[in-house]
C-alpha cells in the first residue's frame, strides 16, 4: 500500500493493422495506475495528440527507441509493438529492470519477464510459465464499457435492421469497399453504416459514391463516439483482430472477415464464441457474405445464440490482471535497476 515512486515507459507501434485498440488499452492502463507512478509514452509522432495527458517521446526507428529508454531509464517497460526478436530484448534488458509484452508471437517474448497474449491462434502453445494466454486479459476501455451486454433483450432497430461495417483505422485490404460492393446486390431494406478510420488508405470519394447508389447507406468517420454507433447495430461486420472482443463485450451478432493471414489465424472469433467467421475478406464470395447476413436477419434463434455465447465469455475485465502484473514487477523487478547517470529525465524532454 505504500506509494511507489517509479517510472514506466509504454511503447506502442501499430503492427498488423491492429487499429486504435492498443493505444486505447495503454491509456486505460496508464490512467488506472497510482499517481506516484510516472508514465512515459514512446511511439510514432502520429500518436502524440492521442496521449497528450502524458509525457511523450516521438521515435522513428529502433535506434531511437533504445535512446529514448536510455533517457527515461524506466523501472518497467510495457510494450505493444508486435512480435520481437530475442537479440533485441536481451539488449533492452541491460537498460530496463522489468518488461511486460502484449501479443508477442516472436522469440523475444520468451525472454521477456511477462507476456500477455490476448490474441492467440489455435496452434499457439503456451511456451513458458510467464505467458498469460487467453481472453481474460482483454480490457474494455472507457469507450466500450458503457455498452456492456447492450445486445441482451435488444430488438431489431426500427424501422430497418441496422448493419455496421468497420475494418479498423487503416483498412489496408479495403474491405469496406469490397463489402459495400457486395451489399449493393442485397435486395432487402437495410440500414448500413460504414465506419472508416482517420488513416483509411483508399479513395473515399469512390466509397461515398457507391454509398449513394444504395438507399439508407452512409459513410462515417470513426470518432470518439464510434462505440455508441456500434451499440445501435443489429449486426456488426468487422475484421478479426481486437474488434470481435469489443463486440463480444456488447453482445451483438457479428460477421468476421480477416484483413490478412495474421488475422485469419486468430482463434477467438469463432462459432463457439458467438461469431460467424468467413475467412480472408479478399477471398470471400458475394453469395457467402450475403447469405451470412440474411441468416442472422431472418433467424431470431441464431442471433440469440450468438449473443448468449458472447455474453457468457464475460469479456473486458482484464484491467485488474494487467495492473496487478505491473505493480508486482515494479516491486519485484527481475534485474537490478540500472544506475542512473547524467541529467534527470524531465530536463531532457
Task: Give a brief description.
This protein has 349 residues and is α/β, with parallel strands linked by helices. It has helices spanning 21-32, 62-72, 86-92, 175-183, 204-212, 226-231, 243-250, 261-264, 286-298, 300-312, 319-331, 345-348; strands at 7-12, 38-43, 55-58, 76-80, 99-102, 114-117, 131-133, 162-166, 191-196, 217-221, 235-238, 254-258, 275-280.
Characterization of the model:
The protein is α/β, with parallel strands linked by helices. It contains twelve helices and 13 strands. Strands 3-2-1-4-5-6-7 form a seven-stranded parallel β-sheet, sandwiched between helices. Helix 4 (175-183) runs parallel beside helix 5 (204-212). It starts with 6 loop residues before the first strand and ends with a helix.
Alpha-carbon distance between the two ends: 30 Å
Unreliable sequence segments: 342-349
What order do the helices and strands follow?
EHEEHEHEEEEHEHEHEHEHEHHHH
Task: Categorize the overall geometry.
Answer: elongated
Helix count from the secondary structure assignment: 12
DSSP E strands, number: 13
- The average pLDDT value, as a whole number, equals 90
Strand composition percent: 15-25%
Amino acid at each position: 500500500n505504500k506509494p511507489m515512486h517509479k517510472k514506466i515507459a509504454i511503447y506502442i507501434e501499430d503492427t498488423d493493422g491492429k487499429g486504435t485498440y492498443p493505444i486505447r488499452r495503454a491509456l486505460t492502463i496508464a490512467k488506472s495506475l497510482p499517481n506516484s507512478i510516472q508514465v512515459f509514452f514512446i511511439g510514432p509522432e502520429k500518436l502524440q495528440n492521442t496521449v497528450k495527458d502524458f509525457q511523450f517521446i516521438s521515435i522513428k526507428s529502433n535506434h531511437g527507441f533504445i535512446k529514448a529508454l536510455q533517457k527515461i531509464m524506466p523501472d518497467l517497460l510495457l510494450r505493444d509493438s508486435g512480435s520481437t526478436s530475442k537479440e533485441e530484448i536481451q539488449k533492452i534488458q541491460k537498460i530496463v529492470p522489468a518488461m511486460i509484452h502484449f501479443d508477442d508471437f516472436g522469440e523475444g517474448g520468451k525472454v521477456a519477464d511477462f507476456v500477455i497474449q490476448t490474441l492467440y491462434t489455435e496452434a499457439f502453445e503456451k511456451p513458458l510459465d510467464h505467458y498469460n494466454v487467453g481472453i481474460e486479459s482483454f480490457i474494455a476501455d472507457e469507450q466500450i464499457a458503457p455498452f456492456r451486454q447492450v445486445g441482451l433483450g435488444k430488438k431489431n432497430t426500427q424501422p430497418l435492421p441496422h448493419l455496421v461495417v468497420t475494418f479498423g483505422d487503416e483498412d489496408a485490404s479495403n474491405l469496406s469497399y469490397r463489402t459495400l460492393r457486395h451489399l449493393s446486390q442485397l435486395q432487402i431494406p437495410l440500414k448500413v453504416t460504414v465506419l472508416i478510420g482517420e488513416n483509411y488508405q483508399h479513395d473515399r470519394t469512390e466509397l461515398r459514391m457507391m454509398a449513394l447508389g444504395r438507399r439508407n447507406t452512409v459513410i462515417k468517420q470513426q470518432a470518439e463516439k464510434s462505440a455508441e454507433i456500434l451499440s445501435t447495430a443489429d449486426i456488426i461486420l468487422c475484421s478479426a483482430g481486437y474488434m470481435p472482443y469489443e463486440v463480444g463485450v456488447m453482445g451483438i451478432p457479428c460477421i468476421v472477415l480477416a484483413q490478412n493471414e495474421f488475422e485469419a489465424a486468430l482463434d477467438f472469433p469463432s462459432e463457439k464464441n458467438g461469431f460467424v467467421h468467413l475467412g480472408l475478406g479478399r477471398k470471400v464470395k458475394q453469395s457467402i457474405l450475403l447469405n451470412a447476413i440474411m441468416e442472422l436477419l431472418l433467424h431470431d434463434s441464431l442471433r440469440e445464440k450468438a449473443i448468449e455465447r458472447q455474453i457468457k465469455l464475460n469479456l473486458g475485465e482484464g484491467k485488474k490482471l494487467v495492473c496487478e502484473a505491473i505493480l508486482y514487477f515494479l516491486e519485484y523487478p527481475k534485474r537490478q535497476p540500472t544506475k542512473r547517470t547524467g541529467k534527470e529525465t524531465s530536463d531532457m524532454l
